[in-house]
Amino acid sequence: MHKKAERLQQVKPPTAESIPELAHRLPPGQLWTDRFPILHEGEVPQYDMAKWNLRLFGEVGSELLLSFEELMALPQTEIQVDIHCVTRWSKADTVWKGVLVRDLFKHLKIDPTAAYVMVHADPDYETNLPLADLLGDQAMVAHSYDGKPLTAKHGGPLRLVVPHLYFWKSAKWVRGFEFMKEDRHGFWERNGFHNVAEPFREQRFSDDDSHMPEDEWKNFDFD
Ligand SMILES: Nc1nc2c(c(=O)[nH]1)N[C@H]1C(S)=C(S)[C@@H](COP(=O)(O)O)O[C@H]1N2
Ligand SMILES: [Mo]
């Protein structure tokens, strides 16, 4: 098991402190924060936007390469959603702007046998999820947060936001969607974390032992 998953399993979960009006929106074992923690493996990538592209490939009629300009020309949507990180922080009413994944996928002939997607991101990050989880009205590739261009540390120029799953599924610096017949594990899914990752079912770890220290996330960077 990856050492992060192992370390997080050592400690008992905290008693949940919460904001009464938001209590029904806080998944079990989570704590609200007003700050915005910064979490990732590796270095923040730098891009020449003239060369940047988003690749849609795998079980599709013909693959698609989109420039940032082409992406910005697609219908733009704003969402206001709660987000939940497996390290126990949740953030209410975050506002993102971008292209709904289902609008992005409209430009493809996805093979009917494609049931899963591997999300490819820099630097060398991947996370998997069922295709159906990307087709709802809240899954988007976002380029703006809180009315401003997404900062590099939070995944700019483009990140995935899938608010109904733990936030490691929301790949920062997203570069590709690979359509797959069979499911395949991404980075954290290979390293002790749950394949499905629904916060309200507390699907944190692949072995169902959901212990996570209360203050793990307080040691990370914020802005
Ligand atoms: N490319 C990439 N995306 C990533 C990660 C990563 O390591 N690399 N970490 C994930 C995890 S574990 C979390 S909690 C969120 C954190 O997003 P934030 O830094 O904007 O809060 O990004 C997710 N997306
Ligand atoms: Mo995370």
TrEMBL record:
CDD domains: arch_bact_SO_family_Moco. Residues 42-188 form the Oxidoreductase molybdopterin-binding domain. It comes from the Bacteria. This is Molybdopterin-dependent oxidoreductase.
